[in-house]
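Entry 12.
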Amino acid sequence: MPLRPLRAREVIRKLQRAGFRQVRQRGSHAATQPQGTVE
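Predicted 3D structure (tokens):
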């Protein structure tokens, strides 16, 4: 059953990465950094 939480964590991480990437690319010089000051 440890596969379920691991999968969810990976999915959430991927989603967060994509979200942060878009937000950063929108108007920020830290486009290369997926995770900025906002976590």
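Annotation: The chain has a mean pLDDT of 69. The first helix runs from residue 3 to 26.
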